[in-house]
Hints:
The chain is of the alpha+beta class.
Amino acid sequence: MYLTYEDIKKNETINTYIRQADETLKALGFTEHSFAHVCKVAETAGTILSELGYDERTVELGKIAGYMHDIGNVVNRIDHAQSGAVMSFRILDKIGANDEDIAVIVAAIGNHDESTAFPVNPVAAALIIADKSDVRETRVRDSADISVDIHDRVNYAVKKQHLMIDKDKKQITLSLEIDTAISKAMEYFEIFLGRMKLCKKAAEKLGCEFKLSINHQDMV
Length: 220
């Protein structure tokens, strides 16, 4: 069966795991990982693949992987990519998804977290970029934490975020507008340098160059 992104969004089992995974991360003090995040990642991954000329099925798989990529957090933050991949396999297999589709989705989910990530296929590459580029003020749960938590402070400082895909120039650019009164650009690099290196590698898998712009200044 060829499942669609809309089928997956309506699946209450998946939605339950997304809700509970976010509750786990909330208890641990992490930023928002609920429907706002997974929907944004899904749509962004789909846009990346579509803009770069991938076929409709690959685009759909990118959206599905994006929507399901963080369910492993319901088990534990550590190794959540691997546990999420195993959970996704069981769910997708149970509802009759096509074997080849399952293989691509599971590989992408299992390779999206920076500690073990690698762009093993175009869907994984798009997922990595979409996930790591979702930096925004609204992901911070409590603004009171920004003085003590650098991750919250950097996210809270990002007032505008835009990912641009230029097929002709073969460039993927993450453009951020940061309130430097809240967080200096250097703090962004302090915690996100590894993620940006991963985005660079993922963009190369898609035949593109990854660029980062902060407050209209090219950084990478």
